[in-house]
Amino acid sequence: MNTQINKQNKKSTFPLYWKCQLSGWSLVSIYWAYTVYTRDNYGVWYTILNYVLDASIGIFLTHMYRELALKAGWKQLSIKKLLIRIVPIIIIFAVLYTLINNLKWHFFWTILIGEDKNILESLVFWDPIFITGLRLMSIWILAYHLYHYYQKEVVTAKENAQLTIIAKQAQLDNLSAQLNPHFLFNSLNSIKSLVIENPYTARRSIDLLSDLLRSSLYEKDKDFISIKEELSLVKDYIELEKMRFEERLQLDISIDKTLNKFKIPTLSIQLLVENAIKHGIDLIVKGGIINLTIKKEHNLVEIIVVNPGKIKSKKTTGLGIKNLQERLAIQYKNKATFSLVALNTNEVEAKITIPFTADENI
Questions:
Q1: pLDDT tens readout for residues 105-128
Q2: What domains lie within the chain, and their CATH numbers?
Q3: Which of the residues 21, 56, 125, 305 could staple to 272 if both were Cys, CB 3.0 to 4.6 A apart?
Q4: Nearest CA among 263, 347, 349, 348 for reference residue 301
Q5: What is the pTM (predicted TM-score) of this model?
Q6: Is the peptide bond before 199 cis (omega within 30 degrees of 0)?
Q7: What is the pLDDT of residue 215?
């Protein structure tokens, strides 16, 4: 029973590429088998041998092209750059197809049949074999790349759709966090107490709250934002929260200023700072300092938030962090990472690592 299941699994996992290779060239070679059997009177045995050789030649040459294309990374090229490469390659492979078939024909007639044939005359016999090779190589190579181009488009469309869903969810989570009653009541109560005592600070706090809520509503439509713009939002958020925490909350920022224009996923730093306050500063009576470091290490951009606190359980990683991880995975093709670790018994580090690119549009 287990043997039968294993056999079924092997059949089901047989690569599509080889299924197409074997079935495609087997079908194509039937035409020539029929031709040599009816026109050239090859006989059954010689016809079968010729059929196997024709299919093998086609599979060998096209598989050799596939290995070349994979090694050279041609599947990642644009259509224009790809065409520049495959047009001469098609001609070269058509020539190889012609030469191999002529050698097959020569050895067939000299070794198997026993006739006296000149090998040079056999090799220069190109019509119609070269045209056939040109047609077959063109069809196979173009079909191969069109299939992979289609697959890449399907994957890209799926990733974009998934990213849109995740991004929208992250935006809703962020908006919900900003609009939750606890946050609003604390902010409004702080503003209320300042209206008479310090009207200027009260007006400033209202502006900050307004800007923060506006950013939650309008920045959500951007997939990426420059670090400089993101830090501006973070500073407004910290200034507003300091009304509640006062000297218990401090933010220390260290940034490589050459990265000011580098773009990152929108509201990603703010999410880390919010978590640092929620799971760290808010739970400690004396509060503490949130250290935000943004630097370039080798070919990576590191965004590091260190805050006092502890990682109590896996629940510390909330929905917002999970969404951020998924956005990073999709937007940077699994080349970006997020980590949350305890540096010691009283400090937690959250780090985002993003590949550095000079292209601001990613």
A1: 777 767 666 666 666 666 666 667
A2: 2-156 (no CATH), 180-355 (3.30.565.10)
A3: 305
A4: 263
A5: 0.51
A6: no
A7: 67
